[in-house]
Amino acid sequence: MASRNTPKTCFTMLIPEVEKELQSFPERRSIILCGIETQACITSTTLDLLEKGFDVHVVADACSSRSQVDRLVALNRLKQSGAFLTTSEGVILQLLQDSSHPKFKQVQKLIIEPAPDSGLLSLF
Q1: What's the structural domain count of the chain?
Q2: For residues 70 and 40, is the Cβ–Cβ distance under 8 A?
Q3: Is residue 8 part of a domain?
Q4: CATH number at residue 82
Q5: pLDDT digits (tens, 9 = 90+) for 16-38
Q6: By residue range, what is the domain housing residue 57?
Q7: Which residues neighbour 92 within 8 Å (Cβ) at sequence distance 6 or greater?
Q8: Which residues pair with 35 in a beta bridge?
Q9: DSSP 65
C-alpha cells in the first residue's frame, strides 16, 4: 500500500500515506500483517491499527525477530491486546474461502507440505 519510495524510519507502518490509502477503502476493517522485528514494527503497527478500530490478523509464522524470546513475547502481547494470531496456511485458506476457488489447486501445491517447526506452539 505504501509507496516503495516512502522512507520507513518509525516502527509503526501506520504512517500518513498508509492511513490515506486505508481511508480510500472505508469498507475494509480487517488488516493482515507479517514482517520482521515483531517486537517493534509489527507490535507498533498492530497496536495503532487496533486503536483505529481495525481487526488485525498477525500471521505468526510469517513474523520474525532477532530473538525467539522477543518474537514470542510480542506475539503474546498482541494476542492479549486483541489481535488475531493466525498462520500462513490459515490466512491463505481464509482468503480463498472455498476449495472451488479457481486458484485453490495452485495454492494447494504451496501448502501441501507441512511447514517446519516455527517454535510457536509454546504460545498456545
Answers
A1: 1
A2: no
A3: no
A4: 3.40.50.850
A5: 888 899 999 989 899 999 998 99
A6: 16-87
A7: 107, 110, 111
A8: 63
A9: -
